[in-house]
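Why should sequence recovery work at all? Because a backbone constrains its sequence more than one might expect. Tight turns favour small or flexible residues, buried strands favour hydrophobic ones, and helices have their own preferences. The token representation captures these environments compactly. In the example below, the structure is given first.
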């Protein structure tokens, strides 16, 4: 199941983003010793050691079953951080599955699946995924098990990608108002205005975004002619934000004339703009 760097079969477009962005990339902290990398390594260890443990399980120094062997998932991406442990537990596979379902860690979403491991053995897995943080992308724990004698063999994996730190300039600071131009495929460009409260709210949503993850992302295709162009008036000048609400939902800022690295996840900002302008969520799309 290990979902980082794995493209879904339903994907119609693939966008690849790396840690550096043009001339700005050299100024970003992409070293494995950066604070985000250090914090992500600590997070992965915390996830590994707080993962649910089956009652009566004993730690193993090596893979207790060939299907659970191997190193951490192979990654060309140096931002990847992973660690794993092996265990033997006395429960039957059915009892182990029930226990792991009942003991989902707080704040996680759960998915399960089955793959074919080494020697053709079916490997059942449960994945506990957490929300991205400001420094780590897709932090998760995956617990895999196969039958072993009267019990089960277990592998626990924890991993995440550390995010390149966002430059301080890649923000909207002190928004006082904003002008908006909406581009949609089924209608002409529409202009609007955001007062102080709405402008501050949209700016806060943008400032809460992180840089694009340093990973290939499976994204649906972006609709053509679809964007929100927002020009914020701030205490120190103007900031232009181009929000593309479809596809991977990017946000690109131009701060005082300088283009910044793209941000990830602009759909909430787009929704807030539409609400502020009293427009429906599907405004301007050809299928209503």
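From this structural description, the recovered sequence reads:
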């Amino acid at each position: 199941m290990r979902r980082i760097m794995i493209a879904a079969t339903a994907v119609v477009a693939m966008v690849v983003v790396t840690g550096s962005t043009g001339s700005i990339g050299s100024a970003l902290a992409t070293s494995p010793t950066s604070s985000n990398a250090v914090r992500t390594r600590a997070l992965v260890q915390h996830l590994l050691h707080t993962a649910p443990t089956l009652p009566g399980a004993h730690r193993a120094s090596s893979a207790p079953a060939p299907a659970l062997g191997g190193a951490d998932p192979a990654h060309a991406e140096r931002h990847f951080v992973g660690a794993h442990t092996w265990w033997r537990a006395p429960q039957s596979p059915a009892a182990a599955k029930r226990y792991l379902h009942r003991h989902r860690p707080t704040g996680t979403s759960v998915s399960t699946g089955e793959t074919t491991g080494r020697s053709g053995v079916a490997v059942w897995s449960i994945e506990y995924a957490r929300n991205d943080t400001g420094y780590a992308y897709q932090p998760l724990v995956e617990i895999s098990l196969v039958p072993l004698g009267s019990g089960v063999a277990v592998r626990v994996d924890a991993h995440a990608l550390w995010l390149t730190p966002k430059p301080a300039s890649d923000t909207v600071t002190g928004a006082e108002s904003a002008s908006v131009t909406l581009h949609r495929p089924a209608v002409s460009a529409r202009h609007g205005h955001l007062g102080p409260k709405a402008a501050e709210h949209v700016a806060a949503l943008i400032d809460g975004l992180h840089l694009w993850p340093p990973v290939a992302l499976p994204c649906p295709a972006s609709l053509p002619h679809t964007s929100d162009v927002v020009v914020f008036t701030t205490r120190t000048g103007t900031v232009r934000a181009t929000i593309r609400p479809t596809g991977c939902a990017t946000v690109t800022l131009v701060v005082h004339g300088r283009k910044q690295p793209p941000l990830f996840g602009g759909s909430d900002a787009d929704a807030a703009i539409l609400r502020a302008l009293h427009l429906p969520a599907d405004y301007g799309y050809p299928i209503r």
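A few observations help interpret the result. The chain has four helices and 16 strands.
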